[in-house]
Amino acid sequence: GDDNSGRKVITFSCCRMPPSHQLNHTRLLEYLKYTLDQYVENDYTVVYFHYGLKSLNKPSLKWLQTAYKEFDRKYVSKIFVLPSIIFKSLLTISFSFPRYKKNLKALYVVHPTNFIKILWNIFKPLISHKFGKKITYLNYLSDLREHLKYDQLNIPQEVIRHDENLRGKQKGKLPPVKVPPPRPPLPTQQFGVSLQYIKDKNKGELIPPVMKETVSYLKRKGLQVEGLFRRSASIQTIKDVQKLYNQGKSVNFDDYHDIHIPAVILKTFLRELPQPLLTFECYDHILGITSVESSLRVTRCKQIIQGLPEHNYVVLKYLICFLHMVSQESIYNRMTASSLACVFGLNLIWPSKGTASLSALVPLNLFTELLIDFYTNIFNSRTVPGE
């Protein structure tokens, strides 16, 4: 899923590491690189679930040395190859992969042991202050809710039970986790409400104001910005802009002097829709795109899109038209249709229950890439009144 700043989240669960003698370490290294390669060109976040790392499945010193040699500067910074096996596995596996340290914006260490904290303090002088600020220790799963969309995380049952045991031991010492009752949306609400709600409150306008304003601004000033949609922005600034929109107040993006703010706002708007723009009903159909013969995939995309409700179709067409324009400037902004698909895939469609698996990312991103690349062909056969 995504964190509260729209950055992709990668989780690493120690309890799922098999016993060392059963593990094909070469394949593990390839899998780690394959997984990270899909995200690390963009800003991203790592959640490290430490519970379950034991002597039985702890990576050996020999394997960690191999990992260190395998990952070039794109992945690993030599300063993080430390004398402790546990700390090496935390740093090397979870976030120190060669070119990727730069775009790692946050590392959440969940259920840290005292040993990890002690080691961190010992080696803290060797690690840059800037990088150290990215690391946050979280003693309980509930603490994750402040930073990312907790319900999107695929948390192992073993970790959940461990968390419950910890809370049970602290019973009486910890305040109960309170979930505030949902508030009714404001008449001017833009985030977290349906397209229909926004339309009804905006005199029947099909394109939500926040989309129209961010797209318009980015068309004027962002089409040739390198890495557009790949960078994050200040969490507090994003919250402030969302608040202004929800209160019906005007937003002047020139005041923020950061082209990535309207880009993040656009992604955030899509991600906070109660139902994805491509609708839950399309999810399984989209997953089947990889089983369709290559020459027929554009036709299949068109068929799926034709089944969308009119309002969703218009908003999607408006968005994809803009993303197609961005891709046409990829010589400057480096954002090809494939790059944009990696950013927007899970912002346009997600399952109604649970989270999209890693295997689902391939068809979801492929479908989005086809929409962007073949925009004219796919959207040329349906006209909606009032579009």
TrEMBL record:
Single biological process term from Gene Ontology: small GTPase-mediated signal transduction
Domain of life, source organism: Eukaryota
All copies of domain CRAL-TRIO, residue ranges: 1-167
GO molecular function, one term: GTPase activator activity
Example of a GO cellular component annotation carried by this entry: cytoplasm
InterPro entries hit by this protein: ARHGAP1_RhoGAP, CRAL-TRIO_dom, CRAL-TRIO_dom_sf, Rho_GTPase_activation_prot, RhoGAP_dom
Entry keyword annotation includes Transmembrane helix: yes
One Pfam family of this chain: CRAL_TRIO_2
Domain Rho-GAP positions: 193-379
Keywords: GTPase activation, Membrane, Transmembrane, Transmembrane helix
Residues passing through the membrane, by range: 79-97
PANTHER family (alphabetical): RHO GTPASE-ACTIVATING PROTEIN 68F, RHO GTPASE-ACTIVATING PROTEIN 8
Protein name per UniProt: RHG08 protein
